[in-house]
Q: What sequence folds into this?
């Protein structure tokens, strides 16, 4: 096999800057999960209130992502990236200084407003720096935080909670953020600005609250346990209506906030669908696994976090190989294989029991990581295959929104399934679910493990669905595709 072409120093340096920023943003989607019980105790509030420490962050991420495409055009990618880092670091420092649950939630929203644009702007910078012929290699670099963040977040959070105060969950971002800001100012070149682009205020007024209401409704499903209640139904109905209005308008607007016309390209549409589904199974499964280890097996937050590590190891092994293979042989050849491996690792968890072997579960998660690494980043790279230089910022914004919304939907849907299964198999445990005071032995633990196994069937089903769009991707390497396009 021919050796991969070496990346120029400027691409590597730019990748370091982007990875530093992205790893902070993505880690904070999961690092807080293991601290919610501690935060609830310290602030003397119930779990239904303290959950907004996570939900508020996700809402802010979803709301601000659509702005990134326009901001890159108008202000320049370097300026937007520096501003995003500054907001994120400020939000992190203030979150560590929070004096109440309300103040912490507010500062997490500020943190999310900065973090929401770090990843899409970073991807856009890398795509423009490397060029389309090396997108598989480049996505293998910046995919590190995207895949490893959700896995390492619980581990780092468990270590911090076990050895120091919860405030360091947020303070740890400050030195890393300052370093990333300093490097970005020194390394990233001043990017061009296009002042002819106008901000789609009407589209923003439809999409941002629409996404926020949808994510809010989905998060509330996790609390109520079903599609009932005026808050859930009202939020979802209003959010979906606003999103539908945005789609109708965007297909007619001369310069929409998100150019949905990109989806007319079959490769982009298939890749975007795959990103949505993989995001759902990634974040949804990462919601279920720590709960299984803590509630069924009685493990600490640190042990539960460490049990997530095999997926990160598997992803790290296959990520770069998958990107290079997709460049050479075509994403439609590599990605379906990755989806099959992902599904095989997930299937093992549908057979969960109260005494399932830790070694078997760890190996299954490692296999799942191999599939994830060979799927996610090559799929992101494939979404850029047929796009022009000017379409990159718009495409980056769209794919990041789909991943975020897919992750939110996965978490909410799996939470509903889990609560329903617990209520059905362990009726006495439903009221204790919020506090984690579930049975620790006897037939009820077996029933509780069965509830988790049933919930994992949903994650497996999403993995199977992802095989459909994967089979629609091109089966020729990128060099071949470019040669055909040039001949035509």
A:
């Amino acid at each position: 096999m021919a050796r991969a072409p070496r990346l120029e120093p400027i691409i590597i340096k730019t990748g370091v800057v982007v990875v530093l920023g992205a790893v902070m943003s993505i880690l904070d989607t999961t690092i807080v999960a293991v601290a919610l019980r501690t935060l609830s105790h310290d602030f003397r509030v119930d779990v239904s209130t303290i959950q907004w420490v996570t939900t508020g962050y996700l809402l802010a991420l979803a709301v601000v992502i659509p702005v990134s495409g326009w901001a890159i055009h108008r202000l320049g990618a370097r300026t937007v990236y520096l501003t995003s880092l500054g907001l994120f670091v400020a939000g992190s420092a203030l979150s560590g200084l929070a004096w109440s649950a309300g103040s912490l939630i507010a500062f997490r929203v500020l943190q999310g407003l900065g973090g929401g644009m770090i990843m899409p702007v970073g991807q856009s910078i890398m795509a423009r720096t490397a060029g389309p012929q090396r997108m598989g290699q480049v996505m293998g670099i910046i995919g590190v935080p995207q895949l490893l963040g959700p896995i390492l977040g619980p581990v780092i959070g468990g270590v911090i909670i076990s050895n120091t105060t919860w405030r360091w969950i947020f303070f740890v971002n400050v030195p890393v953020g300052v370093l990333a800001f300093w490097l970005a100012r020194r390394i990233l070149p001043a990017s061009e600005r296009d002042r002819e682009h106008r901000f789609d205020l009407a589209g923003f007024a439809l999409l941002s609250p629409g996404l926020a209401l949808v994510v809010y409704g989905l998060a509330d499903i996790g609390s109520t346990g079903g599609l009932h209640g005026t808050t859930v139904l009202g939020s979802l109905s209003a959010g979906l209506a606003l999103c539908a209005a945005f789609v109708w308008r965007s297909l007619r607007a001369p310069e929409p906030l998100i150019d949905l016309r990109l989806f007319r390209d079959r490769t982009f549409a298939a890749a975007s669908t795959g990103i949505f589904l993989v995001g759902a199974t990634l974040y949804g499964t990462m919601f279920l696994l720590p709960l299984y280890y803590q509630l069924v097996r009685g493990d600490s937050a640190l042990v539960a976090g460490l049990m997530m590590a095999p997926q990160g190891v598997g992803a790290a092994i296959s990520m770069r190989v998958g990107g290079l293979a997709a460049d050479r042989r075509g994403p439609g050849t590599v990605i379906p294989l990755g989806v099959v491996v992902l599904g095989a690792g997930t299937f093992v968890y549908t057979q969960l029991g109260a005494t399932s072997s830790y070694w078997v579960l760890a190996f299954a998660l490692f296999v799942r990581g191999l599939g994830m690494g060979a799927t996610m980043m090559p799929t992101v790279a494939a979404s850029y295959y047929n796009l022009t230089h000017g379409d990159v910022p718009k495409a980056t914004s769209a794919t990041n929104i789909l991943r975020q919304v897919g992750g939110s939907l996965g978490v909410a849907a799996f939470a509903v399934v889990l609560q329903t299964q617990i209520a059905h198999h362990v009726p006495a445990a439903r009221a204790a679910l919020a506090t984690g005071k579930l049975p620790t032995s006897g037939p009820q633990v077996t029933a509780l493990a069965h509830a988790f196994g049933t919930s994992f069937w949903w994650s497996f089903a999403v993995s199977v669905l992802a095989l459909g769009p994967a089979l629609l991707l091109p089966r020729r390497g990128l060099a071949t595709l470019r040669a055909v396009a040039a001949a035509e």
Residues 431-436, 480-488 have pLDDT under 50 and may be disordered. The radius of gyration is 22 Å. The chain has 22 helices and no strands. Residues 392-425 form the longest helix (34 residues).
